[in-house]
Amino acid sequence: MLGKIAGALLGKKIAGRNNGLSGALIGAGIAAIARRGLFPLAVTAGAAYAGKKAWDKYNTRKAPAYPSDASDASVSPPSA
User: Fold this and answer.
1) Is the alpha carbon torsion for 4, 9, 15, 19 positive or negative?
2) How far apart are CA 15 and CA 9, in angstroms?
3) How far apart are CA 72 and CA 36, in angstroms?
4) 36-57 residue pLDDT tens
5) pTM (predicted TM-score)
């Protein structure tokens, strides 16, 4: 029921000055798309997020770790 109300409000907003059947049809279409399409979209977004986190964790583990007191080779020693 809330989906139909939200779809009607959104359809009215999208239809603008063309009040009538077009706003109701747009609202019904948006509600149907949201009802059928949000779950696969959420699953895809969640899988992409988890994959990115796993990829970042893999890359940080693969990177070499240097001791904190290691000197930087690009810095020249001070001249006296």
Assistant:
1) positive
2) 10
3) 56
4) 877 888 888 899 999 999 998 8
5) 0.42
